[in-house]
């Protein structure tokens, strides 16, 4: 049996299938009525690998959980007639460092959300060190000045 296992393992390889990881895909799509919501839900729920579909019509948000390709989900939603569908462009406001900078605030964003835009480059450790020396939070700032 050992020779057969050796031959099978070295010469008869089965190509491995790519398994997609479980992920959450969020899409912004305008839905006006129950019919629109039902059409989008049915289109996405019938996809292979989809575990659950949550729709929040007030936020115009579709959340799909499962082992799916995000681009395929977006294309499936667009095929329902929703040509302006896009990936969810918003993040919670408390996550962003400067939520009131230009380009981040969006009137169409749901309450408590802002656009996911990186406007300021991340500062280096040296900059943060010098900035904290003269901040109001530093109790020894008066002795430095």
From TrEMBL:
The lineage of its organism: Eukaryota, Viridiplantae, Streptophyta, Embryophyta, Tracheophyta. This is Heavy metal-associated isoprenylated plant protein 21. GO terms for molecular function: metal ion binding. InterPro entries: HMA_dom, HMA_dom_sf. Residues 22-85 form the HMA domain. The keyword Zinc-finger does not apply. Gene3D superfamilies: 3.30.70.100. SUPFAM superfamilies: HMA, heavy metal-associated domain (SSF55008). The gene is HIPP21. One of its GO terms (cellular component) is membrane.
